[in-house]
Specification:
Elements lengths: L8 H5 L15 E6 L3 H4 L1 H18 L8 H25 L1 E5 L2 E9 L2 E8 L3 E7 L3 H6 L1 E8 L5 E7 L1 H12 L1
Helix pairs in contact: 3-4
Amino acid sequence: TIIIVQNTFINFLFSLPIMHIIIRPNEKIIKTFRTHKGSLNYFLPLIFLIIFGFIFFKIRLNLNFWGYWSWAMGAILAVSFIIFWIKWTVWKNNEIAVTDQRVIYNNQKGLFSKVVTEIFLSDIHEVSYELGGIGETFSNYGTVRIKTGGSVDLIIKKVKNPQKVVETINNARS
């Protein structure tokens, strides 16, 4: 067995924290799924709009920010990077794991806030998905609903390839 360790700063930044799934004895992970990257898409155009707005004001209005132009631009880029890193980390840790015994949903709500939901396959009564609109249909993401016998149902929004998630859960149940 060869183990390759990459110790670069970028790999370090984009790998923290990692979702940890505690596997029971004799349990195997069948497949893991992530939410859609679409939750990151609205952020990038906003950052570019702010940066180009600052450049426009600098060029057209000769706005120099009282001699601190480079500091202002550096601060905008630093804050943008930090916000993007937080959003990326939250997205990366939103994951659905289907094992041969249960479905585990790690809902990372923020950098320091998460909810882990586990449903045993024997408790699942119905699994369905919904593609709500033209954007979700063309981008292939939607909502997965897992209904149990109890009063609590699991609703997972912005799931990439929801029909594959439902198919995997149904195959694991049978």
